[in-house]
Amino acid sequence: MQVRIAAAAYAVPPEDEAVEAVLKRERIRVETSLAPLSPESRRKAVEGLGLNRVRICGDTQLYDLILEASSKAIAEAGITARDINLILDFSTWASESWSGESSHGLSFAHKLSADLGAETSMILSFKVGGCAGLHVAIKTALGWMTADESIQNVLLVTGDAAPKGNRSLLPITMHGDASSAVILRRHGTEGPLLLGVEAMTLGHLHRAITMVRTNGHLDIVVDALCMEREVMPIYFLNMLLVVNNALAASSLSLSDIDHFIYSNISRRDREGFRKMLGLPKGSLPPTPMSEYGHTFASDLAINYVNMRREGIIRPGQLLLFASAGIGFTWGVTLARA
Questions:
Q1: Per-residue pLDDT, 27
Q2: Upstream peptide bond of 286 is cis (omega within 30 degrees of 0)
Q3: What does the DSSP 8-state code read for residue 304?
Q4: Can you give the CATH number for the domain in which 52 is found?
Q5: Of 229, 232, 241, residue with least CA distance to 198
Q6: How many domains does the chain have?
Q7: In this structure, how many other beta carbons lie within 10 angstroms of the beta carbon of residue 158?
Q8: CA end-to-end span of the chain, whole Å?
Q9: What is the pLDDT of residues 97-156, one digit of tens each?
Q10: Mind listing the pLDDT tens digit for each residue in 205-246?
Q11: Residue 123 C-alpha from the chain's centroid
């Protein structure tokens, strides 16, 4: 079975906010999160961000971004909404933080299928993976496509906006609001051909980043000590393991890869990924990270779309998408442009 990334698109709100303003406004949250760490770790957390501004929904509803990104992807793929056989929503916080109207416990995919005119599509949703959710979504979609030959076109969609007062996720990153959509097509001729997907989850580390509800208010809680003592010592080791597993499964080596598409958590994290692979300085392509912030699972689609717009990706080149997120989850996707 041959499946291609037929299209990818994203949407960000027009409003933004300076990271310095966020740090000032959420001072108590920041100090509480960083308190368990050493002064040196606290300093590195802030100085290594590499973020200037973050996009914020403000008056824009998150669902409007999801609808916009999905509509763009469908148009780029040259299909209609009725051609979509499966919609998979892998948003991290969306069902909990849906604003504007009640979600009734449903994912965005349910409303999306009606508003797009894809009422006959199968609807799936999950929250496993966070920033690595795209890999899990692709792997899930491929499973459905393998089991059911009638599934020709799949819409993968994600969108996340920080709950009020939860923009800072230090010592890790700053949350930027965004949505993205990817169309997978069986037997298509346009777009990168998927070569393989690998993912792994260590569930005992789920407490590193969680969402809790207190007195009706949602909060994203970062366990700084868990991140520092349990996650980070194995973070890049597991990433390298998943990268090597993906390459081996496709009979490829690291030197075969033309472009590495990695998430926008922080400058420090991107440098760690580069060093892990032994890549020279400047080898990772520029991203809008400093102006968008970390947009969770939308990072990879945003970076991929921008690379295509700038003409960086050429036919025949090998792409390696990589990211890690809550769960705790690591994932890698290989494709040939």
A1: 96
A2: no
A3: H
A4: 3.40.47.10
A5: 241
A6: 1
A7: 31
A8: 17
A9: 554 444 555 788 989 999 999 989 999 998 878 899 999 999 999 999 999 999 999 999
A10: 999 999 888 787 888 999 999 999 999 999 999 999 999 999
A11: 20
Q: Comparing C-alpha atoms, which of 83, 198, 86, 78 is closest to residue 148? A: 86
- Token digits for 298? 């939308």
Give the domain range for residue 114.
1-337
264 CB-near residues (< 8 Å, 6+ apart): 270, 287, 288, 289, 292, 293, 294, 295, 299, 302, 303
In the numeric block, the tokens 């966070």 are attached to 130
Question: What are all long-range contacts of 163-167, with beta carbons under 8 Å and residues at least 24 apart?
Answer: 163/93, 163/96, 163/97, 163/211, 163/217, 163/218, 163/219, 163/220, 164/217, 165/26, 165/29, 165/219, 166/26, 166/29, 166/218, 166/219, 166/220, 167/17, 167/22, 167/25, 167/26, 167/54, 167/56
